[in-house]
Structure formats: structure tokens, C-alpha cells
Design brief:
Shape: globular
Number of domains: 1
CATH topology: tt1808, chain A
CATH class: Alpha Beta
Distance between the termini: 32 Å
CATH superfamily: tt1808, chain A
Radius of gyration: 16 Å
Number of helices: 5
Strand content: 25-35%
Structural class: alpha+beta
Strand order of the largest sheet: 4-7-8-9-10-11
């Protein structure tokens, strides 16, 4: 999720696109915006999700791109934790709406900001916006009106075999933490 501008001046799109940021920043109407990149829970879930989409890419006919720039309008670029695109869609910067955009909340992120971004993704044409809070162990799905809590933690794409069970991801996170604390 976005946090704060990193410069106090207008930055042209061309300059944003020609500049490397570490970690990558988002761009909102001439302002370069730093992202919260999270802690180990965030990173581990991002790896698990990327791996899940990679392992299932042929069966699910999609692939996942971590921290891929997505241009949602002429002057807005977001960098979701994972965007999932159909096999065959290959763009240096994603300008065609992904099938899924997945955001993993960091401790500094707010659900309000996640909901605002979800609405922007949906207006852009993203079909599924998923938000996972690894700290509260809550899963959300973006709808036209709001972020809706998914009590089962099961995220699906109707009409496809895509199923992500966040409870299983949290179990793997807990198991890795337990092994690391020994």
C-alpha cells in the first residue's frame, strides 16, 4: 500500500518510468509515492503466493508477477504485491487489467487505503482484488462497494480452477516461524 510522497515536486511520467527505485514506488498524478514493503510475514506470504501461481500456471492458465508496475490510468501506476495475468499476456508494464491483483497488508497499512486502491483497480477493469492481512489473519475481496471480508479465507475465480486457501498459507507461515525459532 502507498504511504507518502518521496519528493516534494511534480515528477513527469517519463522521469518516473526512467528512474529505478528500491523498493519500487508507485506514481499518483505526478507524485512518486513510497510503498510499505512489509516485514517477514508479508514477504513470506508474497513468496508463497507467487510460488502457488507459478506451480499452477499451466493448469490455471495464468501466472503471477510480484511487484509488477500496473498502469491504471495515464498518470497512475500501482505496484501490487502480486498481479496475476492470463498466459499470453506479456507487457513490460501491465496496461491491460490483470485477472487478479493481490495486496498483502503491512503493519503500517490501513484497511481504508486498501479499500481505496481496490476501488481504483476495479474501475480500471481488474476482475478480482484480494487483500490479505497476515497480522490479523483476515482475507478480503474487493467488490464494487467495499472490501468484503471472506470468512472462509478461500479465494476463487469463478469458472476457473483457481483456489487460494489463506488458512493453508497461514499454516505454512506459522510452521516456518516455529522452525526458525528453534
Amino acid at each position: 500500500m502507498a504511504t507518502q510522497p518521496i519528493a516534494d515536486r511534480f515528477v513527469p511520467v517519463e522521469e518516473y518510468l526512467a528512474t529505478s527505485y528500491s523498493p519500487d514506488c508507485e506514481y499518483e498524478d505526478g507524485i512518486v509515492v513510497e510503498r510499505n514493503v512489509g516485514e517477514i510475514e508479508h514477504s513470506f506470504l508474497q513468496v508463497l503466493l507467487g510460488t502457488l501461481f507459478t506451480i499452477n500456471s499451466e493448469a490455471w492458465r495464468v501466472y503471477g508477477l510480484p511487484e509488477q508496475r500496473v498502469q491504471i490510468s495515464a498518470a497512475r501506476f500501482f505496484v501490487p504485491d502480486l498481479c496475476v495475468v492470463p498466459l499470453g499476456q506479456w507487457e513490460k508494464i501491465v496496461t491491460t487489467p490483470p485477472l487478479i491483483v493481490l495486496e498483502i497488508l503491512s503493519p503500517e497499512d490501513t484497511i481504508r487505503r486498501a479499500e481505496e486502491k481496490a476501488q481504483e483497480y476495479l474501475r480500471f477493469g481488474v476482475q478480482h482484488v484480494w487483500v490479505i492481512d497476515p497480522y490479523a489473519r483476515v482475507t478480503y475481496r474487493g467488490t464494487a462497494a467495499e472490501l468484503e471480508r471472506v470468512p472462509s479465507g478461500e479465494l476463487t475465480v469463478p469458472g476457473t480452477p483457481i483456489v487460494v486457501r489463506t488458512a493453508e498459507l497461514f499454516e505454512k507461515l506459522d510452521a516456518m516461524r516455529a522452525r526458525s525459532e528453534r
